[in-house]
Amino acid sequence: xxxxxxxxxxxxxxxxxxxxxxxxxxxxKRLMSLRGVQESGExxxxxxxxxxxxxxxxxxxxxxxxxxxVFQAIDANEEICIFGDYDVDGITSIAxxxxxxxxxxxxxxxxxxxxxxxxxxxxxxxxxRCLSEGARPDLMIAVDCGTPSLKEVDQLTxxxxxxxxxxxxxxxxEGKPNCVAMVNPKSGDTYTYxxxxxxxxxxxxxxxxxxxxxxxxxxxxxxxxxxxxxxxxVPLVDENRxxxxxxxxxxxxxxxxxxxxxxxIAGLDNGASTSxxxxxxxxxxINAAGRMDxxxxxxxxxxxxxxxxxHLLAEKLDDFNRERQLLEKRIRDEAMTMLKxxxxxxxxxxxxxxxxxxxxxxxxxxxxxxMRQFHKPAFVISVDDDGLGKGSGRSIEGLSLVQxxxxxxxxxxxxxxxxxxxxxxIREDQIDSFREAFSEYVLSVMDSDQRRPRMxxxxxxxxxxxxxxxxxxxxx
Length: 476
Hints:
The protein is α/β, with parallel strands linked by helices. 46% of the residues lie in helices and 12% in strands. It is built from 18 helices and twelve strands. The mean pLDDT is 91.
């Protein structure tokens, strides 16, 4: 049994520059030193990051090939389809890339699969509907998906459709898809923290370096990248931190009608928005449309150029969010009842639950709630009438769900994602076997101390230092 008591970890304190190590100024310096910022010049750059400090986008894998193929499509006036995910990162990625292409004179079509019956990414069902609903594309650009879709990309290529992938998911063990280019920081050694909207921003930056545009300001789109970066819970480090800092400052004066309307609906009309506002008030409303199998409503809001239409769409997203909250509560209550019915639950290292009455769009949130409450890696699975389950998982620090899925693949129909958040497909009659195999895997790679909850602490601060002056400096 794992105790609920947290292990408190006080980070190693670097050397301070004066004898008064408990002063507000020195504590701020120490906090920055813990983040690798020690010199005075570096501190200024950290506290006031500039977009001019962004590195060359062509350092990313396959960026040169991606830019060349996109410009080829623009010059030849080819049909371009942007195929994205149904979450905030995917939707904002489509909106950003569509705006960039439009600035170069191309009207690209955006497409998002429906979570319930088409599943994540470049699924066969999603591709089929995409090709049937619009003009056949010459170039398909997959954003926030595509990296593990080797079979699907190969089929598109055989059908004469070129594929460019702009993604940040973990590469498949089998290798890289047969695409023109895969711009994915996980395929390289740098920028591995970027979300897909960050990758699209890098592509846009690269395109503008090759062919500058007088009437297009990429800075106007940092708010979209900030919303995606915060909502996708990727690390706020390096260029992510820079983009979020600038994006949040632009959010109150955003040029995007959808973000204007969402801020008003969420009560964020006070002239300033924080990462908490985005993570808990804006992001969930965009996500809710995809969870309710209406992702096109969220995309329509993000690309609308009419304030009235954007407001009506934002109201719909708000309604979807309320519906999502009710579904989430019901599923979580039922999941808790299932857990209490398991006599050895406290000793089990994982949570794996499934039901035919659970909505596939909400199981990821419930998995996250259960993981946080019990500090155990959790998969929550929605099973359809044919007995096929689609599950979402959330992990604890130190355990890769991608590796766990690979280890337990004999019980699964498929799966993948990130180390801390992943999805899977499984037959209903294999859920118990998967739970047992998943448990064995966790016990084999983590001991009891590694599975205890941890609380990382930056500094032990005297109470008398916690003044308004300190908070003012800390809030820089």
